[in-house]
Amino acid sequence: MSEYKVLPGPEAYLPPSAASMGIALPDPGEALIEGRIVPEDEAIEYAARKLLSAKVPTIFPGPQVLWKWDEMAPKIAKALRELAVTLPARLIPMADYRPKYPKIDPAVEINPNHPNLTIWHNKIDVCVFVGVHCHLSGMGLKMIRGGTDCYTIAMCLMAGHEDACISVRDTTDEKIRKLIDAVKKLKSQGVKSQALPFTQFKHDYKSVKE
Fold first, then answer.
1. How many CB atoms lie within 10 A of CB 209?
2. What span, in angstroms and rounded, lies between the C-alpha atoms of 81 and 59?
């Protein structure tokens, strides 16, 4: 049996959990690239290359970043903003994905976990999860892998995510800034961002620089 790799899909209507296919979480100082355990710095540089090669790179900051629940959250949020400007990339925040009964707006409550509502609609080819609660990340990453060809990167505040194409654990603002530095280094070596101008999309996006 060939070694299982966590690659962009569409893989299947019900893609298997990467853990069930033998993918293990990395130890501190390590990370995952497509299910393979590597040194953390290698994964960060690989993520930078993927983001620069994307046509619609998108960052999904979750509540653990957007809510000031500890002293680290605003530092990570500031670093993510800088990353978005440096790439450049779009930011689609998940402000509060708890259902609001009796009326639920699915474009908000399950954003960005439903491929039809977010990944397909915005033509996203590479995305980054940061500060998304682990149980929701696990569900969303499998759905995205199952139904889209989007390359997923998870910057996890805890132990990482097997179901992401790239996963970095124990994320802090310093690790986000390592990613920013990797992007800047690649750009200085002549690697250009392939991101499409925001004006080419249905929505009237404003530059993250504004």
1. 8
2. 9
Domains of the chain: 19-190 (3.40.50)
DSSP 125: S
Amino acid at 109: E
Rounded distance between C-alpha atoms, residue 157 and residue 49, angstroms: 22
- Alpha-carbon gap, residue 75 to 83, rounded angstroms: 12
Distances 172 to 118, 119, 131 between C-alpha atoms, Å: 26, 26, 10
What DSSP designation does 40 have?
H
Other residues' Cβ atoms within 10 Å of the Cβ of residue 28: 9
Collapse the DSSP code of 168 into the 3-class scheme (helix H, G, I; strand E, B; otherwise coil) and give the result. strand
pTM above 0.85, yes or no: yes
pLDDT in tens, 91-132: 998 877 777 888 888 777 777 888 878 898 889 999 999 999
Tens digits of per-residue pLDDT, 45-91? 999 999 999 999 999 999 999 988 889 999 999 999 999 999 999 99
